[in-house]
Protein 1
Amino acid sequence: MPPQPIELKYPEYPFTPILGWSISRYEVFDKCKRQYFYQYYSKYATDAPQYKISKLKGLTSVPLEIGNAVHDCMEALLNRLRKSDSNINEDKFFQFADDKLKEYFSTKSFIEIYYKQESELDVAAAGEKVRACLSNFINGPCYSWLYMKAITNRTGWMIEPAGYGETRLGGMKAYCKMDFLFPVGEEVYILDWKTGAKDPAKHKSQLMGYAAAANSNFSVPWNMIFPKIVYLHPQYDELEIKLGESDLSGYFQTIREQTEAMYALCGNVEQNIPLDISEFVKSPSPHLCRNCRFQELCGAER
């Protein structure tokens, strides 16, 4: 009897208020503690009205919305492929992408406009990048491979799974939100789409987290897990790693150290209550501040 396909199902963890590590959370923490406070502990802020902080938290950016549009279109494309393997209508697909991007640009508030970095948004240029990303995927090897091999068990695909991707890494609470997981026989493949610049060190760490989460959540052996970054711009490219359990000891130690560093700024670790905002020091830099949605709150002190 041939091996049965793996059934992927996220475990349910009981709610705990203690913070959970993620690459994105620690990245903000590492760059600027004050930005980290506003992003994750805004309800404890006393230096500005809550409505003001909520408004700033809601700001987005052009690169972020390009990424969101591409991810949403990729989700729609894969859901469609899961139902039918007939050829897609590319004209309709690209029109869907244009409409999605225009919706985001017309309904959201942008850092570039709010802080007067730009007089208006270049929707056309953003649309060209979204189309280029999607075209690179459709014409790339990954899409062909999905048609030839992964589609054999498309009922088991997990496309943009709901929730935040809570897991346990080295016994620590963590979040690893994956774009696309799917089993092929006894193997599990994990794909993550990127529309921005390559960052091999960061992205390798991200893939290590995905592999560890798949091992923890689904009890998949290490040699059966294949995580991959799929770069969609400016041209198609991939970053794939192969891991064994022995490769993760240093990674888990890094996660523990980073988590404990974030714990150190909590007055109550178990309840995830921060110290006073004054303990969250600013790390001003022209590039970082320009792209920070909370720069207004720092004012001249930047």
Protein 2
Amino acid sequence: MTDLPLSGRTALVTGVSRRRGIGFATATKLAALGANIVTHHHREHDREQPWGADDLQAVRDEIREHLTDRALSSDIGADLADPSMITSVIDHASALTGSVDILVCNHAKSGDDGSILDMTPDRLDAYWEVNARSTLLLTAEFARRLSAPPETARRPGERLSGSKPYDCPQGHVFWMTSGQVQGPMPGEIAYATSKAALAGVTGSVASELLELGIILNTVNPGPVNTGYMDPETTDRSLDALDDYLATTPFGRFGTPSDPAELIGWLSTSAGSWVVGQVLTSDGGFSLS
């Protein structure tokens, strides 16, 4: 059990459709720690990006290779811009073992962004619906499943009341944000707005979830090359990239395994004293 601290736990990781992605690295890390793994994917989004869609069967097979003895896995496709899919995804994940203990909201809409002059109601809504709204709704449904129903009806806005103190965390939730507070993100206004909302509300939601024994942290992985900084699949100019990297602390961008290692540790009892934080895991990029 020391080597497999997540044995018997079930993790739902959203946005796992490419082996180059942070979601895939996180799913395989949690699997290696002993967890049962449920992954969510929306392959249609990847088809629209320069990096293209991956082979979903290969994604499934490689996740299974990381499972420990008797651990299970499954996956579900869903467009989380549709709020009706929230319950379906949680239902599917819960059906694997009876409950979900860890929720990693890694999914995100990218591409087709723009400057402030490009913003329209529809463009802003598209990013909000996927990146922020669905994350909040997934978290709410996850928490409802883990908490006992209140003895009396609770009015909207009334503070949550749990069964403190807890011997151990009742669940873990992870949100993913970006570096929007550490520097400008020109040309990504809709994306930065939706991610800033998650970072900004982390403390408020974490406080409420903690009353139920659920731990929420938000991770800013910094610049991680998930394929979008490879010349053949990039969606931006890579001019002078090597010169820039030479000025950074480690001379490289992050890899998907970097934030995955952090999430893996935070999911265990060893990392469970960290609560309600927006954690930057960027190898010092924000300091250079």
